[in-house]
Specification:
The chain is mostly helical. The chain contains nine helices and no strands.
């Protein structure tokens, strides 16, 4: 069986994005909610810093109550924005998939019978159902999540520099390590994911062909032979998934370790600055940075 290889190209991505034009208003709304989420993500830690530095330490009850209500309002707005961001992104992705799947099925029905004699039906099913479903993830878990995360990174970094430039430089020291680890695992995880897609297609193709031709399989007494072939294909499918799980299991703990070490170093460095009477670093900064990292 022929393996499927379909590297992601910019031209292909642009073609997919053309299907979002009928849903331009929803697209713009998702971007707007992504911007608001990035602002709220940075605003809550900043408000906490202001509360601790200006009202907790001075025992100002009225000011403390005001900021608590304000943080609650910001949190509520963040929850609402998150709901609409996830809902609109996923619903638009499913509508786009519906349009693409209808167009693809109409295109397949226009092929001559000779095409279906040479092309495994299982692979066509994989293309029409599973691969198309992956396109929905471009909008629900891919494109918009990347935009949202990038906006959050920029806004949070701006707030961090505004609050305390010394602690911000400590955070930036960890960025090259995290970026390097991401680049290393990105290549491996991409190859593992493409192998999974290949093996899923091979598995679907094999099962479809054998189930459809079961009379012939049983007529020539090939049940044991086909079963051994299936075990081999199924093992390759399982190995591909296990490799994908392995890379994921290694990468995310490493990222968490880097984040935890950075946070620990910030608490240590900020605490030393406070003990030495640094006028820039405050207790509010330490609480805020634990939320930002």
């Amino acid at each position: 069986m022929k393996a499927i290889k379909s590297p992601i190209k910019t031209s292909s991505f642009k073609k997919v994005m053309q299907y979002s034009k009928p849903y331009q208003m929803r697209f713009n709304a998702v971007i707007a909610f992504a911007v608001s989420l990035s602002l709220f993500a940075a605003l809550r830690p900043y408000l906490l810093k202001e509360t601790i530095d200006n009202y907790v330490t001075s025992k100002d009850g009225s000011g403390l109550l005001f900021y608590i209500v304000l943080m609650g309002a910001v949190l509520l707005l963040e929850v609402v924005s998150s709901f609409y961001f996830v809902y609109l992104a996923n619903s638009m992705g499913q509508d786009i998939v519906k349009d693409i799947r209808e167009k693809l099925f109409h295109h397949i029905t226009s092929f001559r019978m000779k095409f279906f004699d040479n092309e495994p039906v299982g692979k066509l099913v994989t293309r029409t159902v599973f691969d198309i479903e992956s396109i929905a993830k471009i909008f629900s878990q891919g494109l918009f999540m990347i935009i949202s995360d990038l906006l959050k990174m920029v806004v949070i970094l701006a707030f961090m520099f505004y609050m305390n430039w010394k602690l911000t430089f400590v955070v930036l020291l960890a960025m090259p390590v995290l970026i390097y680890a991401t680049r290393v695992f990105q290549k491996s995880m991409k190859g593992a994911f493409e192998e999974v897609r290949t093996q899923v297609s091979n598995l679907n193709t094999f099962v479809q062909e054998r189930v459809t031709g079961m009379k012939i399989v049983q007529l020539f007494n090939r049940e044991d032979i086909e079963y051994e072939k299936f075990k081999d294909i199924n093992k390759k499918h399982n190995d591909a998934w296990q490799k994908n799980v392995l890379y994921t299991s290694i990468f995310f703990p490493i990222a968490d370790i880097i984040s935890s070490l950075t946070l620990g170093f910030i608490i240590w460095y900020g605490g030393i600055n406070i003990l030495n009477g640094d006028s820039i670093t405050t207790f509010g900064d330490l609480f805020a940075y634990t939320m930002l990292i």
